[in-house]
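Sequence only, no structure available. Ideas?
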Amino acid sequence: MATARLQERYGTAVPLRQMVSYRLSRLQAKLNAQATKILKENGDLTLMQWRILVMLDLYGEVTIARIVRETEFDKGLLSRTAKAMVQKGLIATKSNDSDLRQNHLSMTPQGRGVFDRAFAPMRGRQDKLLNSMSDEQRENLFEAFEMIENSLDEMRENE
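Reply:
I predicted one. Tokens follow.
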């Protein structure tokens, strides 16, 4: 019955479990829920706060514009989160003398401590996910991600 309805309504008999956007959405929800739990228990961070701290760990000092460019995070959410992190003492801002519109973000010692507490469990989670696959499977997974992202970029350009 469901297969016939899929064929009739959507022009395909592909089960919901094989629809790319459905599977990625489900997977993202599970990953986010798990990360949120780990971050709550190991530093009382939100996922967006963690992502900002990761960027600061990688680059030392960075602007919100660069984070947006590299991650495609929502600029408004990123700005609000950064402001809250400044108020909590996790990050600091420094004005750019050549462009007053661009503040540089950096991790404070308090932010470093919180980041370091959360890093090991988050890294362990990443390792466990990657180690659940063979080298070839990991390579295929990241190639598939790249192909999907390129396809989405192409569709956006053609809109």
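Residues 109-131 form the longest helix (23 residues).
Hope that gets you unstuck.
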